[in-house]
Amino acid sequence: MNFFKETDVVVIGGGVTGAAILRELSKYDLKCLLVEKEPDLSLGTTKANSAILHAGFDAPTGSKKALTNVRGNAMYHEIQEDLDLDIKWCGSMVAATTDEEAETLKELLARGTENGVPGLKILSKEEVLKEEPNLTSVIAALWAPTAGVCWPFGAAIAFAECALQNGAEIVRDCAVTGFVKEDGKIVGVQTDKGAISAKYVINAAGVYADEIAKLAGDDSFTIKPRKGEYILFDKTACTDLVYGIIFPTPTKTSKGILVCTTTHGNTFIGPNAKDVTSKEDTSITSEGMNEIVNSARKLIPNLPMGQAITGFAGLRAVSSTGDFIIGASEVEGLYNAAGIQSPGLTAAPAIAEDIVNEIVAKAGFAKKTNFNGKLPKTAKFTHMTESEKEAKIKENDLYGRVICRCETITEGEIVAAIKAPCGARTVDGVKRRTRAGMGRCQAGFCGPRVTQIIARELGIDVTEVLKEEQGSEMFFHKLGAEGDK
After folding, report:
1. b vs e for 246-270, b when ≥16 Cβ sit within 10 Å of the residue's Cβ?
2. What DSSP state is assigned to residue 368?
3. Residue 70 falls inside a structural domain
4. Is 383 a catalytic residue?
5. How would DSSP label each residue in 230-273?
6. What is the pLDDT of residue 479?
7. Fewer beta carbons below 10 Å: N end or C end of the chain?
8. Of the residues 54, 77, 264, 477, which is catalytic?
9. pTM above 0.90, yes or no
């Protein structure tokens, strides 16, 4: 067998879980590589979720969800500064609007206390309104001070870039097609770019994790996609709608349709929860939008629906076990990090820690003495003082050209995002790294210019630039141009 890459551990899947695992692996004296089938990281669940770092009171006590949630939350507090993560520790409330729901708060408080969540308490209506004046229908709420909201794409990219600076590799546009085995043990991964040797493989393939496992001979679980739809409001209209994370009382299938701030000042409502058959179904529906609005109005009656700027949907990977699937497979050499639905974003660094510890204990890999867990800090141009902006423009005049007017994103920031170690290759990749195109006009003004910048920096034709995945080209040659048929 000829291998085009030789490594010790291969991670399959470039979402926040896979990226966190790669970073954890890079702490050890081993060769590690991540393969992602798409042109960029974070194109699955990581790109369309509620961005909440949960406190940990919801999951059943003793479950992997509960254990990794509480540990993961604490880890984000520890690594936020080192990785320059965009996190707002605003706390969360579970809002009760009836006496029956108020009783549920007591159950959540007891469970959270048993799970080890610090600082939980039930607030009276007066205490709630002091913090969230628009929650006029609420009679009580469970307060969790350790919860927060983050920039999930930024977290995944930070994990990935920290891994890269510590010797890891990432190969994008690389789909896994099978496995190489000797005497029943995995010794490599087959991809559409060739075979990669590996002593261990970690399956973090999101909604496709069951299909990857089956390719290796593990059919012990299945993954069903559950769609959640959202509505996002313009940040200029929602500065005082809510100040933190507002949950309704949860159901058996969902934490409910919430009203939540973001790290950038927007507000969103959602998600609903609808089981779907397609693992690519991220469509939004009128029924879903109506469900979200009607449910959110039970918490905030005065929603500014005229200020909604976009709707979107994401998929959650719901496992047949009802819990996260973390650890060694029945197939030797394969480890699964599967079924990572909510609170998977919060749990990601703890999942990484657990699964890498298991491999290290088996293989005996030694920790590096020179691991660098800190990333360079990058100040956003819009957050700089006037003197800092002037100095930045003198250093690089590209920072004097605003490309995205809604978010005040400069050409310098876009170029830096493309040239970064795990740089953007697509229009949406630039958007996730810089916010160019995330404002009120939703890329109506800056989209074509961003496309031109990507083409220039990557040395490709504008017609080759993708919006997101393969086949999402933005522009085409003019009819009648030379070479057209």
Report:
1. bbbbeeeebbbbbbbbbbeebbbbb
2. P
3. no
4. no
5. EEEE-GGG-TTS-SSEEEE---SS-S--EEEE-TTS-EEEE---
6. 60
7. C
8. 54
9. yes
